[in-house]
């Protein structure tokens, strides 16, 4: 046993490292958005409930930042949990998409957290614009939608069709066989 070399997992063949088609990834994103909306609404309701229980609802200036931090934390934890250790979100399972490292292995919690934080780049520019411009709710929706579509379009500029946040995080989206 002393002279034995431990087995090294072979890297996946390059053919499986190609990203799923953009339309499938966007369909997954829409489904994911609906789930995230439900989670964000639940987190908001919980924050309002806790603030009411603590009797500090009269301090309205606290509500918005506390709500934003709670939702940021909950949504980031959601992505981190589901993307680490080879897990998939329900939309990813439905659309047969998995996230792996650039080397083809399952994400560690740290790598999944980094990817989750980088995923905020999808909407942060639009949120910054809405904070600066104070558009109507309709125009805010258009800014967010436009920002998401522009971010998704950046994958078309890459040969491997990966999103920019995946490149920065050292992760990849791949198709999973049915």
Describe this structure in words.
This protein has 178 residues and is mainly alpha-helical. The protein has one domain (19-175). It has seven helices and two strands. It has helices spanning 22-54, 60-83, 90-94, 109-119, 124-133, 137-153, 164-169; strands at 97-101, 171-175. The protein has a two-stranded antiparallel ribbon with strand order 1-2. The protein is globular and about 55 Å long. The termini are far apart.
List keywords for this structure.
globular; 178 residues; 7 helices; mainly alpha; 2 strands
Task: Flag low-confidence runs.
Answer: none
Report the count of strand segments: 2
Instruction: Please report the distance between the alpha carbons of the first and last residues.
Output: 39 Å
**Average pLDDT metric:** 88
Order of helices and strands: HHHEHHHHE
The class by helix and strand makeup works out as mainly alpha
Q: Please compute the radius of gyration using only Cα atoms.
A: 19 Å
């Amino acid at each position: 046993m002393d002279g034995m070399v431990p087995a090294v997992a072979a890297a996946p063949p390059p053919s499986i490292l190609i990203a799923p088609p953009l339309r499938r990834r966007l369909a997954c994103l829409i489904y994911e958005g609906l789930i995230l909306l439900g989670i964000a609404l639940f987190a908001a309701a919980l924050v309002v409930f806790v603030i009411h229980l603590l009797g500090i609802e009269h301090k309205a200036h606290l509500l918005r930042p506390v709500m934003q931090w709670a939702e940021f934390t909950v949504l980031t934890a959601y992505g981190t949990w589901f993307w680490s250790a080879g897990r998939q979100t329900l939309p990813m399972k439905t659309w047969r998409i998995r996230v792996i490292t650039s080397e083809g292995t399952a994400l560690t919690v740290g790598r999944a957290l980094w990817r989750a934080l980088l995923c905020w780049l999808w909407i942060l520019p639009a949120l910054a614009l809405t904070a600066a411009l104070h558009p109507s709710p309709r125009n805010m929706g258009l800014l967010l939608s436009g920002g998401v579509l522009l971010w998704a379009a950046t994958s078309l500029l890459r040969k491997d069709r990966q999103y920019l946040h995946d490149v920065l995080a050292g992760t990849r989206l791949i198709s999973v066989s049915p």
